[in-house]
Specification:
mainly alpha; Aspartate Aminotransferase, domain 1; globular
Length: 85
């Protein structure tokens, strides 16, 4: 779910322009409400997942959402390595 006050198009545009990460917007009733992230198969390496989370966290934070990007990345890294967070 896209956080309240976050501009869907601006976030997706910044991800593409600054990080070459393309994220799909929601379709139909979900337009402007969710992002569709393709991190499957060869794209689902730990490095790609953490790069995406880092980039998304920074860009969303620039729009005024308070979040702990470092904690999110640490938790994701632990999970990807099969450790309990």
């Amino acid at each position: 779910k896209i956080p309240e006050g976050v501009n869907d198009g601006e976030v997706r545009g910044a991800l593409l322009k600054r990080h070459s990460i393309e994220v799909g917007g929601g379709l139909g009733d979900l337009k402007g409400k969710v992002w569709r992230v393709g991190l499957m198969g060869e794209s689902s390496t730990e490095g790609n997942v953490l790069l995406f989370l880092s980039a998304l966290g920074r860009i969303v934070a620039e729009q005024g959402v308070q979040l702990d990007v470092k904690a999110g990345i640490a938790t994701a890294s632990e999970r990807l390595r099969g450790q309990e967070a």
